[in-house]
Amino acid sequence: MKILIAEDDSLILKTIELCLKRDGFEIICCMDGLDAMEKIEQLNPDLIIVDIMLPYFSGLEIVGKVKQNKNPVPIIVISAMGQQTVVDEAMKLGADEYISKPFNIAALTAHIKRLTSMEEVVA
User: pTM for this one?
Assistant: First the structure.
């Protein structure tokens, strides 16, 4: 399973990447929204993890564009901005989960497993 991670904090990106690789996932890393959008179109990931605050395209813009294209890929939004309006906007645009930073990697993995098993049931 391919997971695309769009996160501009290199330490957080590397931590998520290493933990998810250890769990057997193939990881695609992006440090900005432009790179993320290009890789989403080219590589068709099975799940997307996106930070809200990214250079070029925000996480909210990425969620909106992916879902506007009728792409059913599950999206987990992560952010240090725990404001309810941002959470509401992410969910309204089509995000499947919203996780506030700092977060426990085991909780993120549980969300990934739940969303990917949900995808298998739908398919």
Answer: 0.91
* Tokens linked to 78: 């992560």
pLDDT at 93: 95
Q: Is the pLDDT assigned to residue 118 strictly greater than 80?
A: no
**Dihedral sign (CA 94, 83, 34, 56):** positive
Q: Concatenated DSSP letters for 26-80?
A: EEEEESSHHHHHHHHHHH--SEEEEESS-SSS-HHHHHHHHHHTT----EEEEES
Contact 43, 60 (CB under 8 A): no
CA Rg value for the chain: 13
User: Quick one: the chain helix, strand, coil %, rounded to 5?
Assistant: 50, 20, 30
In which residue are the tokens 């996106």 written?
50
- Specify the DSSP class assigned to residue 2: E
CA–CA dist 1, 46 (Å, integer): 6
Residues near 122 by beta carbon (within 8 Å), at least 6 away in sequence: 72
